[in-house]
């Protein structure tokens, strides 16, 4: 069993209806799918790949050797207790936001300019994907984006758009530590440019962990908790995890198009008279709950959040 692969270039051609149907099915049955021919230039993706790897080598690798997960694993190996590290991830990560560019890594030539360009392309792809979801859910065009951008003035987006650049370095005892613990994503639409050589990302499907197969230059799409709420459960946010590996430094660049922290999120009024299975809440309040419950079952989060 492999996660669906969809040719996004066909969304504007004769096979539009078939492509819409493929995306709807992937959202309903998986919450994860891969897009090929998505419109982000290949040359740009190659630059992102190279510069992210260069950045890790020159600015991150040494620090990871003395990081918390490395120290904790070494302590565990000294004890020789046979235990596993449960509350830590074997991951190096930094986050790129529009307003924190002065904090972006600065010693890798060309990284900043390239990532600004890449993030703009991904943001455009996120908008297209949300419009496809609108259409498939029978919502007015722009509904999801508008819901995420509550309080938008003069076309200035208020939605949260962040990019998490992660590396999962080689781990001497991968069976004792998680690359990234199993979780669902809190927000809206996630667009992942993952390593095309090393695997490790898995999604939970019908009780079984399935590899998200590395595929050169594909963009992996997954839906977060807020899409589950807006779709009234028709689309589910999927549990996923990353396995630590003994060899290979796996790269993962995930961009999150999430609601503004002030946005009110609830099931969209699609079918008349249909029962609403989720509460309406402010996204910032949901994030307060998620911060403490990210790696725990998701259903209690929806019950714990303050409702409107």
TrEMBL record:
Any Pfam family matching the protein: 2OG-FeII_Oxy
InterPro entries, per the entry: DIOX_N, IPNS-like_FE2OG_OXY, IPNS-like_sf, Oxoglu/Fe-dep_dioxygenase_dom, Plant_2OG-oxidoreductases
Domain Fe2OG dioxygenase: 155-259
Top-level class of the enzyme under EC nomenclature: oxidoreductase
Keyword field: Ethylene biosynthesis, Iron, Metal-binding, Oxidoreductase, Vitamin C
Pathway the protein takes part in: Alkene biosynthesis; ethylene biosynthesis via S-adenosyl-L-methionine; ethylene from S-adenosyl-L-methionine: step 2/2
Catalytic activity field: 1-aminocyclopropane-1-carboxylate + L-ascorbate + O2 = ethene + L-dehydroascorbate + hydrogen cyanide + CO2 + 2 H2O
One biological process term in Gene Ontology: ethylene biosynthetic process
EC number: 1.14.17.4
Gene Ontology MF: a single term: L-ascorbic acid binding
Stated family: Belongs to the iron/ascorbate-dependent oxidoreductase family.
Protein name from the UniProt record: aminocyclopropanecarboxylate oxidase
Organism annotation: Brassica napus
Gene symbol of the encoding locus: BnaA02g18450D
């Amino acid at each position: 069993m492999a996660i669906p692969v969809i040719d996004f270039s066909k969304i504007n051609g004769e096979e539009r209806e078939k492509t819409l149907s493929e995306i709807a099915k992937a959202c309903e049955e998986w919450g994860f799918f891969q897009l090929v021919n998505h419109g982000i230039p290949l040359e740009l993706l190659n630059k992102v790949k190279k510069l992210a790897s260069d950045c890790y080598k020159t600015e991150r690798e040494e620090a990871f050797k003395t990081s918390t997960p490395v120290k904790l694993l070494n302590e565990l190996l000294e004890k020789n207790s046979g235990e596993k590290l449960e509350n830590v991830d074997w991951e190096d990560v930094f986050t790129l936001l529009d307003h924190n560019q002065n904090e972006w890594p600065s010693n890798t030539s060309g990284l900043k300019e390239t990532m600004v360009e890449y993030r703009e392309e991904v943001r455009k792809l996120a908008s297209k994907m949300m419009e496809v979801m609108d259409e498939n859910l029978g919502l007015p065009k722009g509904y999801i984006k508008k819901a995420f951008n509550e309080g938008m003035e003069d076309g200035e987006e208020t939605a949260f758009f962040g990019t998490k650049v992660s590396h999962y370095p080689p781990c001497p005892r991968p069976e004792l530590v998680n690359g990234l613990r199993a979780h669902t994503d809190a927000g809206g639409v996630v667009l992942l440019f993952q390593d095309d050589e090393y695997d490790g990302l898995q999604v939970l499907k019908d009780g079984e962990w399935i590899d998200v197969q590395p595929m050169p230059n594909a963009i992996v799409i997954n839906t977060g908790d807020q899409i589950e709420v807006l779709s009234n459960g028709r689309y589910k946010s999927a549990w996923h995890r990353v396995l630590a590996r003994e060899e290979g430094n796996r790269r993962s660049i995930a961009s999150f198009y999430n609601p503004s922290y002030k946005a009110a999120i609830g099931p969209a009024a699609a079918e008349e008279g249909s029962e609403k299975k989720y509460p309406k809440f402010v996204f910032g309040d949901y994030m307060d709950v998620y911060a403490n419950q990210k790696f725990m079952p998701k259903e209690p989060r929806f019950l714990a959040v303050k409702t409107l």
